């Protein structure tokens, strides 16, 4: 998605060879006009797959998921990172290791909102090692739901998550795939 | 907002006299078609106020804030509940006590995304004791930004937050104001 790659080149900041900061438009300040373009692109890629539910994980996936859901005319469910008093009854649970925060989260979804009747599109802002995405796929499998695939805004293609999941047969569609990056040369994308 | 009140009556669940669960459409599963109606209503109430930025707090405010921002044609900034490695540089910080989770959070916003040039509309799903909203107002004040007001989806009007903030001169617009609730009689709204 050229518009997105251009935006990453212009407004993204590289730290070292591993950290890509896009917090001015993607995951702290959020450019909803860009999100509309992203949602439209996800619809083009997953149209006709029967998606009736979008699943994401708090917090930074929620905005993109909600705008994308407007294109699919379906609800969003966001997986929560720890059990709260606000969730009653039974939940599906999985564990996700966050490399950013250096800890393991319990990630939960209420069983009332994911089931065998669902065809799920997972949406998230980043894919790197794939831990969050694998956790969400585990929740979809526990629910007996069908997985249409995963729509990712930025994939760090130099990390193993995306290819490992594709090798398992998961359809992963990433709108910008970063091949490498450095503070000197910026971001290079997979063509 | 009658559509919202009807939805709360139909799909909300009351626990005791204090807990209103609306997780089937507002803050776990999210009905984005309803969010579009909510966003349109916030625009009707705050149109012409010069809003150029929407501020919310993770996680459940983000979806409503993003859909509302489509109506205002402005970006969203969401305040984060703890410092992460993903935020560089200086931040505004405040403390918010969560009664739901029984703890105090540091809540932060990057100084790059809130400043004296901003006219801010705060959006959140719930207003009860007002702790989260007061924290967000503190961040707006630290930034030297102008506060247009707060757009709240559900206010527990039997708790003191809304009236305390209105008494301080904050414009608080709540789309559904709950006067009282019980498991036997359901939800009664302020007319």
Describe the structure concisely.
Two copies of one chain form a homodimer. The first copy, chain A, has helices at residues 2-11, 32-46, 61-72, 131-142, 161-167; strands at residues 13-15, 19-21, 29-30, 53-57, 76-79, 91-98, 103-110, 119-127, 146-156, 172-182, 186-189.
3D structure, described in words:
The structure is a homodimer of 191-residue chains. With 191 residues, the first copy, chain A, is an alpha/beta fold. Chain A has one domain: Rossmann fold. Chain A has five helices and eleven strands; from the N terminus they run H-E-E-E-H-E-H-E-E-E-E-H-E-H-E-E. The first copy, chain A, has helices at residues 2-11, 32-46, 61-72, 131-142, 161-167; strands at 13-15, 19-21, 29-30, 53-57, 76-79, 91-98, 103-110, 119-127, 146-156, 172-182, 186-189. In chain A, the strands form three sheets. Chain A has a six-stranded mixed beta sheet, sandwiched between helices. In chain A, strands 1-2 form a two-stranded antiparallel ribbon. Chain A has a two-stranded antiparallel sheet with strand order 6-7. Chain A is globular and about 50 Å long. The mean pLDDT of chain A is 94.
């Amino acid at each position: 998605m050229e518009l997105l790659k251009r935006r990453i080149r212009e407004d993204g900041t590289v730290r070292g060879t591993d950290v890509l900061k896009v917090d001015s438009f993607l995951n702290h300040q959020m450019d909803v006009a860009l999100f509309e373009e992203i949602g439209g692109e996800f619809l083009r890629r997953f149209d006709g797959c029967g998606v009736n539910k979008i699943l994401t994980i708090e917090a930074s996936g929620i905005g993109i998921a909600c705008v994308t859901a407007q294109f699919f005319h379906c609800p969003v469910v966001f997986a929560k990172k720890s059990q709260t008093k606000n969730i009653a009854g039974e939940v599906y649970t999985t564990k996700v290791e966050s490399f950013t925060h250096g800890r393991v989260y319990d990630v939960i979804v209420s069983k009332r909102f994911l089931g065998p009747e669902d065809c799920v599109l997972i949406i998230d802002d980043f894919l790197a090692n794939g831990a969050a995405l694998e956790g969400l796929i585990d929740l979809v499998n526990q629910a007996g739901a069908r997985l249409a695939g995963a729509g990712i805004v930025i994939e760090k293609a130099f990390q193993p998550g995306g290819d490992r999941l594709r090798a398992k047969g998961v359809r992963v569609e990433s709108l910008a795939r970063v091949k490498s990056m450095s503070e000197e040369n910026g971001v290079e994308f997979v063509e």
